[in-house]
C-alpha cells in the first residue's frame, strides 16, 4: 500500500531526483532538441515541492491533481503540459483515496498514459516518454495480474522503463522538437523517457 503521507514523500523525492539530474536531462535534450528538458522539469517539480506542505492530510487524488495543475501552469514547452495532464488524469481516478494498492497503481498509470496520448497524439516507437512509460505499465500490469506484490511489480516496471530508454537510442523521433532533426536523432537517448524512468526508480525506492 502507498499511503497519502507516503505520496508526499515520493513527490518530494521525485523533485529531488529531477533537480539532481537537471544538467544531464538538459544535456540529453541539447543533443536532439533545444536543451531545456532538465530546466523545465526542475522548475515544475520545484514548484510542486513548494506545495507539498499544503497537501498534508489530503487524499492521493488531490495530491496528484495538484501536482498536475502545478506542472501545467509552471512549465512551458511540451513536457510540462504532458506530465501535467498525466498527473491530473491519474489524480481524477484516485479521487478520495487515502491509500492505493497495486491495482490502483495500474488504474492511475493507465489514466496517465491516456492523458499523455490525448495531449501529445503520440504512440510508442516515436522516441518519447511513452517509450519508457508504456512498457513499464505493461510489465506492472502483468506482474500484478500474476499475483505478485507491489514492490516486485514496480521493480519490473523499472526494468521495462530502463529497457525502453535504451530502445529510444535506436529509433528516430517522429514527435516533439527532436523530430525536426529526423534521422540524426538516432543514437541519442530521449530526455523525456529518461525523466520518466527516474519517476519509476524513485517510486521503487520508496515502496
Ligand atoms: P520541449 O520539447 O517543448 O522543449 P521538453 O524538452 O521539456 O519540451 O520535453 C521534451 C520531451 O517531451 C521529449 O524528450 C519527449 O519525451 C517528450 N515529448 C515531446 N513531444 C511528445 C509527445 N507528442 N508525446 C509524448 N511525449 C512527447
Ligand atoms: Mg526541450
How big is the Rg?
16 Å
Helix percent reads over 70%
Order of helices and strands: EHHHHHEHHHH
CATH T-level topology = Serine Threonine Protein Phosphatase 5, Tetratricopeptide repeat
The total beta strand count reads 2
Q: Can you give a write-up of this model?
A:
The chain is mostly helical. 71% of the residues lie in helices and 2% in strands. The model has no long low-confidence stretch (mean pLDDT 97). Adenosine-5'-diphosphate (ADP) binds at residues 29, 33-34, 36-37, 40, 77-79, 82, 116, 120-122, 128-130, 175-177, 190-193.
Write the layout of secondary structure elements.
Blueprint: E1 2-3, H1 4-20, H2 22-32, H3 37-55, H4 60-74, H5 79-93, E2 99-100, H6 102-120, H7 130-145, H8 150-168, H9 191-205
Antiparallel strand pairs: 1-2
Helix pairs in contact: 1-3, 1-9, 2-3, 2-9, 3-4, 4-5, 5-6, 6-7, 7-8, 7-9, 8-9
The structure holds adenosine-5'-diphosphate (ADP) and magnesium ion (MG).
Q: Which key phrases capture this entry?
A:
binds adenosine-5'-diphosphate, globular, binds magnesium ion, mainly alpha, 9 helices, 207 residues
Offer a concise description of the structure.
The protein is an all-alpha fold and 207 residues long. It is 71% helix and 2% strand.
Amino acid at each position: 500500500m502507498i499511503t497519502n503521507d507516503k505520496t508526499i514523500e515520493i513527490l518530494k523525492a521525485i523533485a529531488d531526483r529531477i533537480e539532481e539530474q537537471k544538467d544531464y536531462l538538459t544535456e540529453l535534450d541539447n543533443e536532439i532538441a533545444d536543451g531545456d528538458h532538465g530546466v523545465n522539469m526542475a522548475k515544475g517539480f520545484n514548484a510542486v515541492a513548494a506545495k507539498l506542505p499544503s497537501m498534508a492530510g489530503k487524499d492521493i487524488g488531490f495530491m496528484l491533481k495538484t501536482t498536475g495543475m502545478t506542472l501545467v501552469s509552471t512549465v512551458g514547452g511540451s513536457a510540462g503540459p504532458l506530465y501535467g495532464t498525466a498527473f491530473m488524469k491519474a489524480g481524477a481516478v484516485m479521487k478520495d483515496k487515502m491509500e492505493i494498492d497495486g491495482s490502483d497503481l495500474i488504474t492511475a498509470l493507465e489514466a496517465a498514459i491516456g492523458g499523455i496520448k490525448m495531449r501529445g497524439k503520440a504512440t510508442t516507437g516515436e522516441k518519447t516518454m511513452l517509450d519508457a512509460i508504456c512498457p513499464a505499465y505493461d510489465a506492472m500490469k502483468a506482474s500484478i495480474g500474476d499475483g505478485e506484490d507491489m514492490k516486485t511489480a514496480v521493480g519490473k516496471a523499472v526494468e521495462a522503463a530502463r529497457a525502453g530508454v535504451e530502445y529510444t537510442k535506436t529509433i528516430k523521433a517522429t514527435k516533439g522538437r527532436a523530430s525536426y532533426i529526423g534521422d540524426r536523432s538516432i543514437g541519442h537517448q530521449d530526455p523525456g523517457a529518461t525523466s520518466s524512468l527516474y519517476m519509476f526508480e524513485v517510486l521503487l525506492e520508496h515502496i
